[in-house]
Amino acid sequence: MKALLSTYDKTGLADLGRHLSDAGYDLVSTGGTARDLRDVGLQVQEVSEMTGSPEILGGRVKTLHPVVHGGILALRDEPGHEAELAQHEIDTIDVVVGNLYPFVETVSRPGVTLADALENIDIGGPTMIRAAAKNHPHVLVVVDP
Q1: pLDDT (tens digit, 0 to 9) for every residue of the chain, 145 residues total?
Q2: How far apart are the C-alpha atoms of 110 and 100, rounded to whole Å?
Q3: Burial call 36-71: b when 16+ CB within 10 Å, e when fewer
Q4: How are beta strands 44-46 and 26-29 bridged, if at all?
Q5: Domain extents in the chain
Q6: What is each CA distance from 88 to 29, 44, 54, 65, 69, in whole angstroms?
Q7: Full-model pTM
């Protein structure tokens, strides 16, 4: 079983990571989230190790990859999906933990620049959460660890 964790707000992350690990989940995570989980002694595989692709564009692209989204979206009771996962050596992802960049808070600040506003439009987080929600019979979604 795999749990994918990629959060902006790390509140509660260490405890959730411990609980998931204790329950037998392998933890997979992106850069800063992985670092925070490792800092509390948890074993974590970087998403980039799982996909074979590094985070790129200064962290703008981390989880947007077929290995990630195939693992989230695959229907566990659909033989064709299982066969495709096996063919492409993709593991299922059973838990997705994510929360989003603070866009509203950012654009509410006096003097916020367009560059700051644009950098706080989250793409990967909502995509991950929506993929997990689409496959909710098979994937647990956590947005507030």
Answers
A1: 999 999 999 999 999 999 999 999 999 999 889 999 999 999 999 999 999 999 889 888 888 999 999 999 999 999 999 999 999 999 999 999 999 988 898 889 999 999 999 988 888 999 999 999 999 999 999 998 7
A2: 21
A3: bbeeeebebebbbebbebebeeeeeebbebebbbbb
A4: parallel
A5: 2-142
A6: 20, 22, 18, 13, 13
A7: 0.91
43, two tokens = 């074993």
One CATH from 3.40.50.1370, 3.40.50.720, 1.10.8.1000, 3.40.50.1380 for 2-142: 3.40.50.1380
Tokens representing residue 124 in the block: 């990967």
Give the contacts of 5 (CB within 8 A, at least 6 positions apart). 13, 16, 17, 20, 27, 28, 29, 30, 33, 37, 97, 98, 145
